[in-house]
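Hi V.,

You were right to ask for the full record rather than a summary. Here it is.
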Amino acid sequence: MSSPASRPVPPAAASHLNLRGAVDLSALKQRPAAPAGPAQIPSPVSGSGTDTTADAGRTALRVEVTEGNFQELVDLSARVPVVIALWAGYSPESAGILESLERIIDSYAGRLVLGAADIDAFPQLAQAFQVQAVPTAVAVLKGQPVPLFQGGADEPQIRAVLDELLKVAAENGVTGSVGGQPPADAGPAPLPPLHQAAFDAIETGDYAAAASSYRQALTEMPADAEAKAGLAQVELMGRLQLLSSEDAETARLLAADEPDNLDAQLGVADLDVAGGHVEDGLNRIVAFVGRNFGPERETARLRLLELFDVVGTSDDRVAKARQGLARVLF
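Predicted structure:
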């Protein structure tokens, strides 16, 4: 397991994205095609099996969405995520969000396409996406809608959402691009401010300050999975920072002699997970939960959930420990 100080902290996951298809686009996709507008649908040139290139210019990655070209955009979403910005002339925030989305999506060098949809001109689209206010941003990925955000959003928040969208797209095999390849010198996307503050604190060994930044990030965005994992890691490192080698040895001896000593068992579990003995550490707490009841049991359970975030919730060892926890609890 990498410690927080030895690896970059990834950008925030700004929302839980999925492909469950909360709204039905089939009615729109089956509507008779109206004459398409002047904007040309960008053609994928990377990861799509075609060498066709999009028109150059500022509008290469922005399409004005109409009934006539909506089906093409849905088809395109099988190869490149399409971000639909639903706007209206009466909304003062719409122009700013459109400008921000166009500028930010341009910076992704063809990995995303922006569709601008005037809900006054295309009210059926707003109804299909169940839009409650404008501006609203929704992605289409492999023909399925993915809610992004509603109302105003600043650039770091938008980038965090789009970064998460691209992760989901990659997991579902959508890795094409339009209009050319990303610049060779393109670096990683900047971290959101609170994540950057946490990372800077980690670099200096100030785990308490890093934890404070992550907690603030979670206050502002409770679904921020990266902040949750980062908080669990820096809290672990903070606990270990207070232990000397003699304290660690004493904790191991005490845990061996007193299997129901909560502090001793949690301390050794921390040492095991940080030292790479992940299964031993997780199983130690599962066993404690199985033997005990009351407040100490709940404290141990919550610590186990934190360690799941440290190790990574997709890790097989976490999956096995989670099954073990379910068995002793139920």
